[in-house]
Amino acid sequence: MIVRLFASVRKAYGDKTVEVEASELTLAVLMDRLAQRIEGIADSVSRGAVLMAVNRELVDPIGKDRDRMVHSGDEIALMPPLAGG
Q: Which terminal residue of the chain has fewer beta carbons within 10 Å of its beta carbon, N or C?
């Protein structure tokens, strides 16, 4: 399973993707595995400093969406909040 990283998350990790060994898992388990690889990511997500999207839909992997299943073909991304106008 590939998680794409953008902007400050990419810079903090030092690469544009993180590979997580799994064909399917819950968002809560995915966050646990990412927290082992990216220092402070769980805290950043819980504070809203980093957002997670699955198939271009924002999700709450620590709260209401924690039991949602993701699969190896899903597009998963971590990014800072975006502003535009």
A: C
Judge whether 66 lies within some domain. Answer: yes
Question: In the chain, how many domains are there?
Answer: 1
User: pTM for this one?
Assistant: 0.89
Separation CA 69–CA 49 (nearest Å):
23
Asked whether the beta carbons of 27 and 68 are under 8 A apart, the reply is yes
pLDDT digits (tens, 9 = 90+) for 43-81: 999 898 999 999 999 999 999 999 999 999 999 999 999
